[in-house]
Amino acid sequence: MTITPLIQTKDLCKSYDNDGVVTPVLFDINLTISKGEFVAIMGPSGSGKSTLMHILGFLDVHTGGRYFFQGQPTTTFDDDDLARIRATRVSFVFQAFNLLPRTTVLQNVMLPLLYHPAVPVGEREKLALQAVETVGLMDRKDYVSSQLSGGQKQRVAIGRALVTNPEVIFADEPTGNLDSASGIAVMDALQKLNDEGHTIILVTHERATAEHAERIIHITDGRIDSDTRNFARVIASEKNLK
Amino acid sequence: MRFRDTFRTALKGVTVNLSRSVLTMLGIIIGVGAVVLMSSVGQSIQGVILSQISSLGPKSMVIFPGPEGVGPQGVTTGFDSLTFEDLSELMKLKSITTVAPVIFVPAKTSYGREEGNPRIVGVTGNFFKNQELSASIGRLIDQEDLGGAKKVAVLGSDALDKFFGSVDPLGKRIKIGETYYTIVGALDLVGSQFGQNVDDRILIPFSVAKNVTSQKYLNLITLQAVDSFDLAFDEIRTLLRYRHGIINPKNDVKKDDFMVHSSEQASQILGSVTLGLTLFITTIAAISLLVGGIGIMNIMLVSVTERTQEIGLRKALGGRKRDILLQFLSESVMLTVIGGIIGMVLGVFLAFVISGIVRNYLSSYAFAVSIKSMVAAFFMALCTGIIFGISPARAAANLHPIDALRYE
Fold first, then answer.
1. What is the mean pLDDT of chain A?
2. Does A144 contact chain B (CB < 8 Å)?
3. Across the interface, do A83 and B320 touch by the CB < 8 Å criterion?
4. Domain locations along chain A
5. Residue A94 needs a FRET pair 20 to 30 A away by CA distance; which of A27, A155, B73, B181 works?
6. How large is the angle between the packed helices B18-56 and B321-358, nearest 10 degrees?
7. For chains A and B, what is the number of CB pairs under 8 angstroms?
8. Where are the domains of chain B?
9. Which numeric CATH code is attached to A34-64+84-241?
10. Closest alpha carbon to B277 in B29, B33, B41, B54
11. Residues above pLDDT 70, as percent of chain A
12. A-chain residues near B400 (CB < 8 A)
């Protein structure tokens, strides 16, 4: 029996067309990611790693090649299909946290459930409280985002990402705006989610952050340079203990 | 996204920047407030005119001396064009049933220490028929009073209040000029006719008024048309022009030295006033709501730009195009609906205040609210929210998720 990969790309390309000026960003990306993997996509600024993540997370569309999600070609998805996948099967943690201003921790975490078609209204608060507890912010659940530190904001964003119990969590430079201690805490949270079975796709330009993943894909100038197992994986919780 | 969630999200969008939302609503508040206020004032004015018409009677006509354009208020004195001979000739017209001559007596009135200047009106029995007047107490002036030139008087309701209050006036003697008159009755409340308060008057027999003033002319003549006003108008004008030597082949009423008015004309005035008011209100509403709508569209476009990243986030979290569209459309509709409700309350309040002030000068002016106009104004506000909110909402809904997230 063949196991269908969660994500598979074949010669995937992306170029931007600005008033007739075509700028290619990704070239012939061939990639397979299985369910439950923790993958870091690493590369310097402008290498195309974020663009790849946005395409894989259905925030952007590719301009060439093919992208299969759980074996289904994504070109068959219309706008509503893509929105439903974003609501139920994937989620995001952004570098800039992207929390709603003047909104409490609990409300921010609850936000994706507004768009989830299968979660009943009565379940929302319970699920959000569980997610807030998972990221260790129960004592601050009624704080608004401006009352939180950077690390706490990113933990809220992680809580928001896991509240819908998605298959894949995309994290775009999640430690980029954090001090090292907060960064380790965030990586610890992501590793724990991975341990619970969530597929994590992490985008970073820092080697130290990428080393928390079990697989590192290196991109330079829109092409995959290397795709290797990380046998020297860093475990954030152990770092924390130290 | 469920409707309740859309509603709550929109409400938060409106309340999160309250001062801006209130300023945005101002155009709608003023627009709806103006419509409600003007329609309320219009309805009150209609009420005033209606009371005049009803007090005139359905087939009632009045001939005033003096040329058209001076206005009924100004013609009661100073013009001597209506003569007793005119009266006898008018009585012969087939299109007229009853004719009643009127003479005003310029005199001060007093009862005990109370003094006043009610209009003293010399009338015949037909006057009461033509004007459909009835006695609230006592009786009206009868043939015996007229024939015997008896010094009797019937009080209008305002005159009754002023001189006697709650005291029974029947049999009491009131001084008009230098003569005492016995009160034999008082009239029901009438209201106003052609802008004049006709309750502040005292009616005395025509024969007495004629003797007191020694007047050779009439101050006005009231009549009842048989059926057609047109025929009555034609006959009266033809007769009076002939008698007064007026050559007026083009039927230019300004050349005449008399004016003929009817209750039907008052109806026409009401119709034209109503039409004018409706057009006026519609214009105000259209302009105000247009301005208000543009204000709302402007603010919603600013809001979409300000919240581009939020829109991107909502899309990244699974928000569909229609969820975003409905969220922003609901916000603009909410702004106009709240603005509309505030405008309605404000309009009704102002109409109430105005009616309180105007009633001091025009007793028949009553506070009225046009529910139809309120509903229409509210729906216009609602439509404004939809029409002017759709473009910003579509702009928000059509944003590409990643472009919106990256927006700075």
1. 91
2. no
3. yes
4. 34-64+84-241
5. A27
6. 40
7. 62
8. 3-53+268-406, 67-256
9. 3.40.50.300
10. B41
11. 98
12. 60
- Which of B1, B14, B313, B399 should we substitute to test contact with A (largest number of A Cβ atoms within 10 Å)? B313
The encoded tokens of residue A71 equal 């074996």
A95 in reach of chain B (CB within 8 A): no
Q: B126: helix, coil or strand?
A: helix
pTM of structure: 0.70
Nearest Cα residue to A9 out of A42, A25, A27, A31: A31
Find chain A residues with C-beta within 8 A of B311's C-beta.
Answer: none
* Three-class DSSP category at B248: coil
Contact B318 A83 (CB under 8 A): yes
Angle subtended by helix axes A121-134 and A105-114, to nearest 10: 130
ipTM, 2 dp: 0.91
B152 token code pair: 């009797």
Residue B183: pLDDT band by 50, 70, 90 thresholds? very high
Q: Which residues, at least 6 apart from A242, have a Cβ–Cβ distance to it below 8 Å?
A: none
Q: Measured between alpha carbons, how far is B342 from B354 in angstroms, rounded to an integer?
A: 18
| Degrees, nearest 5: CA angle A162-A164-A170 | 50
Pairing, β A21-33 against β A7-18: antiparallel
Chain B residues with CB under 8 Å of A115 CB are 1, 314, 317-320, 323
Q: Report the length, in residues, of chain A.
A: 242
Task: Output b/e per residue, A99-111; b: 16+ Cβ within 10 A.
Answer: bbeebbbbbbbbb
Say yes or no: A38 contacts chain B, CB-CB below 8 A: no
**In this predicted model, what pLDDT tens digit does every residue of B308-327 receive, in sequence order?**
989 999 999 999 999 999 99
**pLDDT confidence bin for B75, thresholds 50/70/90:** very low
Q: Hey, of A18, A55, A59, which one would you mutate to test binding to chain B, going by the most B CBs within 10 A of its CB?
A: A59
Q: Which residues of B touch A (CB under 8 A)?
A: 1-2, 4-5, 9, 16, 309-310, 312-321, 323, 400-402, 405
Query: Per the CB < 8 Å rule, is B323 touching A54?
Result: no
Enclosing H/E stretch for A242:
none
A60–B320 C-beta distance less than 8 A = no
Contact B352, B367 (CB under 8 A): yes
Residue type, B194: F
State the Cα–Cα distance between residues A186 and B126, nearest whole angstrom: 102
What is the mean pLDDT of the segment spanning B183-204?
A: 80
Q: What number of other Cβ atoms are within 10 A of residue B254's Cβ?
A: 9
Question: Which residues in B lie closer than 8 A to residue A102 (C-beta atoms)?
Answer: 16
